[in-house]
Amino acid sequence: MPATIDYVKENELVAFAILGVLLVLFIAWPRGEARNPRRRGPEGPPHPYRRAAPRGASRSEEESPQDRLAWAAPEEDVIPSRIVEQATRTGRRWEAIAFLESEIAHAPDPDLAYLLARTLAEHGDPAGAERWLFTAARFGQRDLERARTDVAFAAVRDRPEWPKIEAALAGD
Question: How far is 105 from 16, CA to CA, in rounded Å?
């Protein structure tokens, strides 16, 4: 009897096919840490801005060592201005805004409110910038000269609410 495919029983052919698929999966399956790089610890996932940003195409090529330190800063050493600068530079503006809003909700800070107003103004939301400038003044921001000379607020200075913002920042 010649050994051709016609004489191989159908069950043996299926068994060989299954073994072949298993062999391919075994060879292609990743090993060790590569299997699950985002393994969560018992405390859950870390805040995305309190750990180093993942390496990849979205990360800026001109990143400085200070930027890397800001992204990897421990919780008490978070540098919001660096985080916002890095996030907006890499096209993650809404993540930067959400980060600032959550930080302000956690601990009201006039400088963070001012930074959020500046970020919104830079990205074409003068109404949001006005709202956060008023909030910064309510939290105690009194640096009127900085707001007057900041180029990010050029569009906000042309709006009718600007005199009220100036008065609030002046402490009146």
Answer: 61
Q: Which residue has the higher pLDDT, 54 or 148?
A: 148
Which of the four pLDDT bands, split at 50, 70 and 90, describes residue 131? very high
> Distance (Å, rounded) from C-alpha 96 to C-alpha 125?
14
Handedness of CA 122, 124, 128, 130 (dihedral sign): positive
Tokens of 4: 């051709």
- Residue 167 · residue 140 · CB < 8 Å: no
How do residues 63-80 score in pLDDT, each as one tens digit? Answer: 565 555 554 444 555 677
Query: Which residue from 95, 153, 96, 148 is spatially nearest to 121, judged by alpha carbons?
Result: 153
Handedness of CA 128, 52, 107, 166 (dihedral sign): negative
Q: Is the pTM of this model over 0.85?
A: no
Residue 55 contacts residue 26 (beta carbons within 8 Å) = no
What is the DSSP secondary structure assignment for residue 123, as one 8-state letter?
T
> Any idea what DSSP says for residue 47?
P
> Could you report how far apart the first and last alpha carbons of the chain are, in Å?
105
